[in-house]
Design goal:
The structure holds two protein chains of two kinds. By secondary structure, chain A is an alpha/beta fold. Chain A has a single domain, classed as P-loop containing nucleotide triphosphate hydrolases (Rossmann fold, 3-Layer(aba) Sandwich), CATH 3.40.50. Chain A contains seven helices and nine strands; from the N terminus they run βββαβαβαααβαβββα. In chain A, strands 5-6-7-3-8-9 form a six-stranded mixed β-sheet, sandwiched between helices. In chain A, strand 8 and strand 9 form a beta hairpin. By secondary structure, chain B is mainly α. Chain B has one domain: ABC transporter involved in vitamin B12 uptake, BtuC (Orthogonal Bundle). Chain B has 15 helices and no strands. In chain B, helix 2 packs parallel to helix 9, helix 2 packs antiparallel against helix 12 and helix 13 packs parallel to helix 15. Chain B starts with a helix and ends in a 13-residue tail after the last helix. Classes of the chains: A alpha/beta, B mainly alpha. At the A-B interface, helix 5 of A face helix 10, helix 11 and helix 14 of B.
Chain lengths: 268, 297
């Protein structure tokens, strides 16, 4: 834990409240992410994970509190963030190649009225190699499998040459083997890029993640590698069956009370 | 061949062909965005709201101008000239900006508001025509198109619009593709997505005005979407789709014109039927490029 004090803060969230109209989804969030971290935040659906991502990306202004990305405002700092959205069903006939999708990561550095350059092409090629999609670069994005498409989005994020990678449910719609492949890619990326990912699925917080936290309106995050029973209890407010999900970090006792509530993925 | 050569002797036929070619270019490029971004409804709204401008153009031409220049040349020439087209450009651009802002700024019921503006635009047009004095028989031509009546001055306007449309698409190509594919990501990359979206709607507005002359207001959406939809099933990227739908648009216009000339049918409807039948046929053909089954992970 001590080493964290020597590393610069890349994401700083102080007393953040955010939500929609009168409904505050996030209450009093404090979060510090240091350079080189690989943070996994889990929480039930409706617990504010997506809201937190939106705030970090500047898509939703906070109601109260402060967010700094690399010491800058969100709008400035998000240039340094590579965003990997959740895989959602999309128009499979959309006529665009894997290469062109990845190259969109350069939009932030090639402003309006500027064309992409050879330098951009080199960055795109490098990113596609990192996620092992270079050979499929001319495929239409709709022809890829879910895991391949997820890696294409990771490549697009990398093309922006970010210092932080933000992932929304990176393994929610792929099978465990593919998921391991994605985490292997992320582990290599983490050697030089800070990673923050969110998921409703506790099994997504695999052993590749260095630190974990729980988010359910409030955030329970202590910079540690383990989910503590207290964090889970606070976050989920119901008994949580960790054993069934095979969490690599640790196994927690079942609570005797509140029987009938069930898995993390469906809570909230 | 004889009927075609014979037809080309006629200056209105040459004008019609030229208009068809020019409109197909804008239609192929802009239609591609309409299809892949799924904004057919708002495009329909812009097209119909433009009718308000047609009405305004008539009103200015027949009720305002004669007052300004009483007894001048305008009184002798009874044709509406390019006034309705200019009015339509004004109204459709206005509709595009207002509808776009409403869609972006309000959270709910944007489609209702667009539907309302759609109807208001048309109603304004009809009232303006009621108010304007004189001859208005060819008003129907804006509803059902009359490519055979395109005047030289209109041809120049259409050419100008084509240049504007192509230039804007070239300038903002990567941003237009980005907001079509993934708007959230484009936002995070600090692309001014709202502004680019409004630009796209204005491009649609200008295209719709040109097409109104060819196939008429009511069938604008069909001509805007069908060539792009067919091309989209076979294209690998958006440039291919744009080129493909432009070529298809030209082919449909020429065949439709020929059909209408030979059998003496309404030209706009002939063009639409040719496109529509081809579209239905194309659905039966499975694109070779998509033969690989999409694997699920």
């Amino acid at each position: 834990m001590d080493t964290e004090r020597n590393r610069p803060e890349v994401i700083t969230v102080r007393r953040l409240w955010a939500g929609y109209d009168r409904d505050q989804v996030l209450e009093d969030i404090d979060l510090t992410v240091y350079e080189g971290d690989f943070v996994g935040l889990i929480g039930p659906n409706g617990g504010g994970k997506t809201t937190l991502l939106k705030v970090l990306l500047g898509l939703l202004p906070p109601t109260r509190g402060e967010v700094r990305i690399l010491g800058q405002s969100v709008r400035e700092g998000r240039r340094m963030i590579g965003y990997v959205p959740q895989l959602v069903e999309f128009d499979r006939e959309f006529p665009i190649s894997v290469w062109d999708v990845a190259r969109m990561g350069r939009l932030g550095s090639r402003r309006l009225l500027r064309r992409y350059t050879a330098e951009d092409d080199a960055v795109v090629a490098d990113a596609l190699r990192q996620v092992e999609l270079y050979d499929l670069r001319d495929r239409r994005i709709g022809e890829l499998s879910g895991g391949q498409r997820q890696r294409a989005y990771i490549a697009r994020a990398l093309v922006a040459q970010p210092r932080i990678l933000l992932l929304d449910e990176p393994t929610s719609s792929v099978d465990p083997q593919v998921s391991t492949g994605i985490f292997e890619v992320l582990r290599r990326i983490n050697e030089h890029v800070t990673i923050l990912l969110i998921s409703h699925d506790i099994s997504a917080i695999s052993s590749y993640v260095k630190t974990v936290g729980c988010l359910n309106r409030r955030l329970f995050y202590n910079q540690g590698p383990n989910l503590t029973p207290e964090m889970l209890e606070l976050a989920y407010e119901c008994p949580v069956d960790l054993i069934a999900h095979g969490v690599p970090h640790r196994v927690l006792p079942m609570h005797g009370d509140h029987e009938g509530h069930s898995h993390l993925g469906e809570a909230g | 061949m004889a009927p075609i050569l014979e037809a080309l002797q006629l200056s209105f036929m040459r004008h019609a062909l030229m208009a068809g070619l020019l409109v197909s270019v804008a239609c192929g490029i802009v239609g591609t965005f309409v299809v892949i971004k799924r904004i057919v409804f708002i495009s329909g709204g812009i097209a119909h709201a433009a009718y308000g401008g047609i009405g305004l153009g008539y009103y200015v031409r027949y009720s305002v101008l004669p007052l300004v220049a009483a007894g001048g040349a305008a009184a002798v020439d009874t044709r509406p000239g390019s006034w309705p087209l200019l009015g339509a450009i004004l109204f459709s651009l206005l509709a595009a900006v207002i509808m776009g802002l409403i869609q972006r700024r309000t959270r709910q019921r944007a489609d209702t508001v667009i539907g309302v503006l759609w109807a208001i635009g048309m109603a304004v047009g009809i009232i303006f025509v009621d108010l304007s004095a004189g001859y208005k028989a060819d008003l129907m031509s804006y509803l059902f198109g009359s490519i055979l009546a395109v005047e030289r001055s209109e041809l120049l306007i259409i050419l100008g619009l084509d240049v504007v449309i192509v230039t804007l698409v070239v300038l903002f190509y990567k941003e237009l593709v980005a907001i079509s594919f993934d708007e959230t990501f484009a936002t995070v990359e600090n692309v001014p997505v709202d502004a680019i979206y409004i630009v796209l709607l204005c491009l649609i507005a200008l295209t719709v005005v040109m097409m109104m002359r060819v196939v008429g207001l009511i069938m604008v959406i069909a001509m805007l979407t069908m060539p792009a939809a067919i091309a989209g099933r076979f294209a690998r990227d958006m440039k291919q789709m744009m080129i493909g739908s432009t070529v298809l648009g030209i082919v449909f216009t020429v065949i439709g014109l020929w059909v209408s000339y030979v059998w003496n049918l309404t030209s706009g409807a002939s063009i639409i039927l040719v496109s529509g039948l081809t579209y239905l046929l194309s659905l039966a053909i499975s694109p070779k490029l998509l033969q690989r089954p999409s694997a699920h992970a």
